[in-house]
């Protein structure tokens, strides 16, 4: 027959274990939006019996981090690749800015002006104005 003291100790262990589990749950809830946070879990197991063979309740094991090893490995493998893609994005943004096709005064427009100037010069080969126009649009295209 368990004594009053052993019953109180069992109750105290149960309250302590559940308090720890509640604290861990609160910690998980508070950090759910934190990038890189892994959920934590408190596991329990039966406490060893006393010398008379009577149970002493349950006790908490150390808090463990819950995560998927496969997913973690994949993240670590793919992380360096994100740098490659960010660099590629930066260069493509610079190229897009240079070509500037959205505003209508990009490379396509400059080439059209250049070939139109050649066409104008071919129809009026003696015209100094057509030659000056070709030189000017050629400079714009070269920049």
From TrEMBL:
GO biological process per UniProt: bacterial-type flagellum assembly
Keywords: Bacterial flagellum, Secreted
Region feature (Disordered): 36-61
Primary localization: other
GO MF, one annotated term: structural molecule activity
Alphabetized InterPro entries for the sequence: FlgK (IPR002371), FlgK_helical (IPR053927)
Pfam families the record matches: FlgK_D1
Biased amino acid composition, Polar residues: 36-48
Domain Flagellar hook-associated protein FlgK helical: 92-142
Compartments, as annotated in UniProt: Bacterial flagellum; Secreted
GO CC, any one term: bacterial-type flagellum hook
The family this protein is said to belong to: Belongs to the flagella basal body rod proteins family.
Protein name, as recorded: Flagellar hook-associated protein FlgK helical domain-containing protein
